[in-house]
User: What shape does this take?
Amino acid sequence: MQDILKDTVEFSTEKSVLFQFNSKSKLAAYSMGIYCTLIELSDSFYTLINSRNYTGTLSVYRSFVENYVDLINLKLNSLYVHQLDYGSYIQEQRKLKAAKKGNPYLAPIAQYADEKLPVILNEINKLKESKEYKLCNTVRDKFCRAGMEQEYEGLYPTLSAESHCSLEAIFSRHFSVDPDTCNVNISINDKSNYADYDYYVVNMANYLITAGILVANILDGQQLDEFVRKKEQILAVV
Assistant: This one.
């Protein structure tokens, strides 16, 4: 299964640099940026799986899925660029507010806080009040808009548990009970459960090649036939 993902990453990397796009178009630029991120995350995921270092893989997978959802939404509605702008403004606002309060990690930007905060607030309010696009208020809203409500309800909680080191993730990763002695055994980087990750490996390969199809459609059909053929090859194997 690993070879399927490796091959898809290599194919996607090769084809990504051949796309031609207008960097002044938010839709084109954001789509290409997300696509390149998906390729990198897939490569990171493959590297961890291939070396059988499973801890962290599902955190990478979670980031991958969140970016994939954004790409789907960009394809479904070009005005989704406003959602990405909104998220960026909110993050910048948080940082500047913290910098203004004296956060030592943000000291270099504190001097710009008073000047930039009103500007950012104005942009945030314009997006909130816009009648042409209704913002998603939650991660769930984004998944639902992308038609991935089942993934959000059935898969995302597991990914989030791994990302946030929940007790469920900690215990399943590091503790096991010996059925004969009832003793609790500790494990670090358990190498016995690769088969548990087959689903994620295959699904990521499918999502990644589909992402290429989405970008090809956003960019007026560039390389579309090649991506469609590649997806057919992947589905035939899995």
Q: What stands out?
A: The chain has eleven helices and two strands.
